[in-house]
Amino acid sequence: MKKVHLLVLSVALLVTSCSKDDSPQPSTTAVGNGNQEISIPPGILTQKVLLEYHTAAWCGSCPDADTKRDQVMAAYPGKIVPVAIHQSDAMQIPGFFTIDATFGSSPAFGMVNRIPSLNTVLLNRTQWLTNASSAVSRNAVCGLAIMSTVAGSAAAIEVQAAFLTGLSGTYNVSVYLTESEVTGTGSTFDQVNSYNTDPTSQWYNLGNPITGFKHMYVWRKNITPVLGDQIPTVFLIEGGLFKKVYTVDISGFNKDKLNVVAFINKVGTTATTHEVMNVQTAPIGTLKNWD
């Protein structure tokens, strides 16, 4: 059996709200969810893909980006984790500025596991499917499991990261909250639609702007710092197991539509030298075991 290395953290569990790059304090206390618990990591893990795409209510081409996102998700069911990063509308959060400063930003463009193509990490939506196909075909060298519980306006979230092989370099674990569907009223929610007069588009004749538009997979909060918490090198070995527990304030959100997104990212020195190694997601208040 592979030797499992556990992280011992001495800081008490603390309920707190996350600002731009602030993270809640970790805890050694495991998250209980009835009789469920995170199991021992298996010897094989599924490679999944983080699709971080830029969008905005004022962006006329962004409805087509939603179409391209759905095509990628349909091509690889259960293996694509989308995160919509909003810019200059009612759904933008402070973390956007860190992403923009690190990778750049452009509505209707996105990153596929932060892997560059043609020397750029921001990919046109027409590139997402091909690049997702390449990314999902890789052998997973690590993976994640998530367990969370909700009590009132606070959620406790346990994230575990398992490593199947040794890795060199700096690796972080990032944890986000996304909301699966967000609607609102006014110009900062109504979606500008450049395809309203295009009969070949699914967005044909839906209005410009589209009122009551359903914004999907919206990035609502970063639980860790935006670029993540560093994983100590002692865990970056075959059989290494890193654990961390956070608590976070979820007041103001629809908890029935909240999801936890956790991913392991290799930290680079330029926009094109970062990489997401694997990603996992789960509705808040549930267990997502290794897969």
The main pleated sheet reads as: 5 strands, antiparallel
The rounded Rg comes to: 19 Å
Q: Give the uncertain stretches in residue-range form.
A: 1-28
Number of strands: 13
User: What general outline do the C-alpha atoms trace?
Assistant: globular
SSE order and pairing:
Elements: E1 49-55, H1 62-75, E2 80-86, H2 95-103, E3 109-112, E4 123-124, H3 128-136, E5 142-151, E6 154-163, E7 171-182, E8 215-222, E9 229-230, E10 241-249, E11 258-266, E12 275-283, E13 287-288
Parallel strand pairs: 1-2
Antiparallel strand pairs: 1-3, 3-4, 5-6, 5-13, 6-10, 7-8, 7-9, 7-11, 11-12
Task: Give a description of the structure.
The structure is a single chain. With 291 residues, the chain is mainly beta. Helix content is 11%, strand content 31%. The chain has helices spanning 62-75, 95-103, 128-136; strands at 49-55, 80-86, 109-112, 123-124, 142-151, 154-163, 171-182, 215-222, 229-230, 241-249, 258-266, 275-283, 287-288. The strands form three sheets. Strands 7, 8, 9, 11 and 12 form a five-stranded antiparallel β-sheet that branches. Strands 2-1-3-4 form a four-stranded mixed β-sheet. Strands 10-6-5-13 form a four-stranded antiparallel β-sheet, with no helix packed on it. A hairpin with a 2-residue loop joins strand 5 and strand 6. It is globular. The relative contact order is 0.25.
